[in-house]
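REQUEST ID: PR-0412
SUBMITTED BY: lab tech R.K.
PRIORITY: routine
TASK: structure prediction, single protein chain
INPUT:
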Amino acid sequence: MAEAKWYVVHTYSGYENKVKANIEKTIENNKNLAEQILEVRVPMQDVVELKDGARKTVSKKMFPGYVLLNMEMNDDTWYVVRNTRGVTGFVGPGSKPVPLTEAEMKPLGIKTENVSIDFGEGDSIAVVAGVWKDTVGVVQKLDYGKQTATINVELFGRETPVEISFAEVRKL
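STATUS: complete
OUTPUT:
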């Protein structure tokens, strides 16, 4: 069995979410593919827009026209993805898809190395590095894919959720 890597698929502009849904539906219908296509992502980022003097946070696609896939590359997976409605092809020279490197994945918040942590949801943790250093919070959510913990911190008298890297915290 081959190792799963991250690949980039080019889609028609505006079809990113439809392609993601179509691939996920195909995986759902074919259990064999579920072990080979592990994750489908449309990378999003929160952007603050100023409209009519009001600040509004909006999620926008980081790479319009592209979808990321964590999958084992073989003839079956290549065929399924390549023949999904809205997909124009894999990113790479000619017809050979090229997986993303570790350096290319880091800015996307995708980490491949596994980190073991000694805390879970509901545990109190202390932030030991970064902008939230010396802050204490309770873990609300863990994201092993991005290797982050979402904690609630008190900011201006309110509980505010903050996403912190596993490397920047320790259990109390």
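NOTES: DSSP finds four helices and eleven strands in the chain.
REVIEWED BY: pending
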